[in-house]
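S.,

Sequence below, as promised.
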Amino acid sequence: MNKKITDIQKYILFVGLAWLLSISGGSALVSASPAEASISGIQASDPSGMIVFASQRDGNFEIYTMNADGSNPTRLTNNSWDDWAPVWSPDGQYIAYSAQSNGNKQIYRMRADGSNQTRLSSLTTNDADPSWSPDGTRIAFHTIRNTVSRIAVMNADGSNRIMLSAGYDYHAAWSPDGKRIAFTSERNGNPEIYVMNSNGSGQTRLTVNSASDIEPNWSPDSKFILFTSDRDGNREIYRMYANGLGQTRLTSNTGIDFEPAWACSGTTIVYASEMLGTSEIYIMNTDGTGNTRITNEPTWDRHPSWQPMYCLRPVAQIASSSALPNVLLVSFKQSPTPLYSLNGGFNWQPVITTPWLASFDPNIPDNPLHVAVVPRSGSIPTRLIVAYNGTIYRTGDFGQTWAQVTLPIWWGCDIGIGQSFDLLTTPADPDRLYLDQACDDGTTFGIWKRILFTSADAGLVWQDFTSLHYKPIPSPILAEQVTARWYDLGWFWEVYDGVTWSSLSDTWVPPTELALDGQDPNRLYGIDFYEEPPIGYQSSDAGETWTAWNEQPCSDYNQLIAHPTISNTLLLRCDQGLFGSQNGGDNWTQRSTWEGVLLAPDYGNPGWVLWARIDGLWSSMDSGVNWNNLTPDYLNHNFLPFVSR
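The prediction came back faster than expected:
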């Protein structure tokens, strides 16, 4: 356990960041903006990427870009009419914007350098304020017909217009997860913030007061919404959770503050303000501190939008192996292309041949590729395993050729109805794999079909237990022990050799999310999500009895992991940030206000924990007290298919 850590391992580089390096190509590697090499506690903000905005500095409103510090302003449009409300496409290659080219308001699109300016909307209607879908294929906007403003969507080329709302709605904002659209509505009198599903259903009011609440803008993780309100007498910037709770004022200036937008790093907000007279562009930290003016013109600058240049792709899984300390494999939601590294993450390559591509559906973020790293299979020293939609794919040459293994039984439920699919490994036996598949076929309310598969030879031969409804959690220290839970009822079991199962408790067991201690096989941790708010528990007798934590640090838990080598040590992701406990969950310390995307043990480097955040991968060797940024560079992902952030 005290293995010497090499210099290369200290620089494990996690990929999944970085949109295109530039709109016209670029070198394979560029340097990131300067950032802290390590942190203890809360990280400072670090803006990066370009900002597009509208300005009157040359007469009428035109579209400009500038660096995040306000330098190098570049004019993109040069028309006799006003151009305003520009927004970047999710891949950073296009800009959609509003224009009044023929007397009516219209939606236009152009490349990021201002070329190929193309009208998308009809000349007979007033259309304005575009917002891209996260996959870049559609645009939401408001359209005015017969003096009534409604939210509509169209394809990115202007075709297939679909009306989503009934009236008096504007300021559409598509959530980065693609599921919802926030908007302003006056349907009940004064302007308020509403949200609806991306197909127009489920329209729900989030703000309720006599003031004007307008201009919603989503955080990159889709958990918060910025908006502008004059509820305190002056127009200021506010933030709330996506369900409308926790409405918090961020700015307090003499002039009005408006048109806020998140940086895709999640650390910084750009907005327009008249605090010094005319409207200028400012940036601030997400808690409202650090206000910095980045434009200085006697005329009006407004409508800022931050380019999604250096954003973490939505990580689905980080795979490592205790027998292969330098091999990492990463998959991403909504992307069919995993990346692998052979030197601890210092360099990355895409898995170029993807036989699952024909059946891959990028519009279902909850159905990503599941991946594993195994040390051997017969004479092949290293294999990468990819599981997708009922088929196991195995490669011994890092994606040049693949062998397919069809699972013995597959429910084949409609993924759109609901599906859970996990590929799991255990460091105690690197060749053993567990695959848990469950789906709702829509025929029995509240009951999901479920299968647990096991393989002892790195995915070549699989056994299935079709009569069991288990969610497996492999032991990190015992090769043949797996703790599992009954999917619907919460019972706990254990398995030896993947065959013999026995009940661990005859009574109701609360937790529905499990973590196994890294040293003590009898110690378990869990969260009961059926409680409101959720409650965390611990067990010291392999699940026979459970005790609630003395302290419940969060109101909304998202992920719990146990440290892979230190007993009684937990890390917890929740909406309020990252928390750590070193006594089994009875006391907690907040490590960061960041929640991050995913926590994962690095089995190839004992004692290391990886933390995927929207600004890269961070690693801790001391149970989460201090974190080191392992991403000193950003890779050019031009070889990857475009996916949403």
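Residues 1-47, 414-418, 632-645 have pLDDT under 50 and may be disordered.

Coffee later?
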